[in-house]
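Write out the 3D structure for:
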Amino acid sequence: MSISGQQTILIGLPNESAGSDSLYTAFTKINTNFNTLFSCASPYNTFVANTGIQITSNANTGVVNIRNSGVCNIIAGTNITVSALDENGNITINSTAGGNGGNGSGGTVTSVALLPASNARLTVTGSPITSSGNLIIDLATSGVTQGTYTNPNVTVDSYGRVTTISNGASQGTVTSIGITPGSGIQVTGSPITANGSITVTNTGVTRLTAGSGILLSGSNGNVTISSPITGGTVTSVGIISSTLNVTGGPIATAGLITINLPSDINLSGNIIGGNLSTGGVLTVTGNANIGNIGTAGIITATGNITGGNLSTGGVLTVTGNANIGNIGTAGIITATGNITGGNLITSKQLLLNGAEDLAPSAAANLLVTASYFSTSAAETATLADGTSGQIKTFMMLADGGDMVITVANAAWGGSGTMTFGDVGDACTLQYVANKWFCIGNNGVAFA
């Protein structure tokens, strides 16, 4: 481009001053020209073309050509309006057509795609379509190997696809036939796996021959053996007992013999049987192992009683152990041994005779109900875990010093101790839910 304000230096003929500028004037004009040149020169010496711009230069002419290689002109088509270039160089393109465009205000569909609900069940190729093409939908493989299966075991999912399949065991073909012999039978040729014969031989009775005084009804099939000889026949059956009541005997032709227990039963041996019922007294010196025992009198057992339910209207006395379901009596129950069972009901007294004199530093005996002690100095003892429902009592007879009993799994917590300090101190414990609970106390300190 042209730069204005250029200073011209006047130069005359050689060695003549006429028509020539002085050296000062000439150099001043040169300096002015350089100042003008540098002030008007561009600070840029490199041009870089960005997107849509093309730059060419001619070194001979000194011309740099910058050309728009992108959009040069916008022509409005059908249903399209193009605004004029605004002061910022922006052009607005609008659609004037209606329809169901993607933004709801009309427009042109530029892309169509298809997404499968599950890639494990469907495959889609050719998606999206931006101009033209085909969408291909196919079933996804389920991992099952194609082929022919024998007696297949098949798993089908909720979409009807076979997800697993395998050959099953062969069925329905008989590969072997055999016969297992019983008593008196011999079998040969068994089993048969292809073809052959099975031979069955009777190794038991093969023939019956009637001897003297014997008659046979036949030679095969069901054979009846009888004797035609008379005499030697039982003509009467009777029962004699010194301890049981027997009626209906002897029987000469046909009838029933009835055997009943007497009102009072006194046995020095053992009783083993089903149910025992008597209206009198039952006394057993040995052991009684019976189902249910019922009596209106007195039951006395020196040995052990084992059975189901025991019911008596009198007194129950057991010197041994009683292992019975439910016990019910209208009298007094006295047991020197152990009573094990379900419910115990009495309208009078229950006497538990088991007791011990608890020694110093000893463990309380869980096989007896009561533990009593007399101290001569400060003493200790222990109580181990009991059996669910068990009752244990402690009482001080004489006081020569405190008795401290340490209780395992004491329900009252703390150190789990009971301290007896005076004569007459006593308490009752019961073992419930794997803990000892105090259910009665007189003067005992619990910690």
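The helical segments are 23-40.
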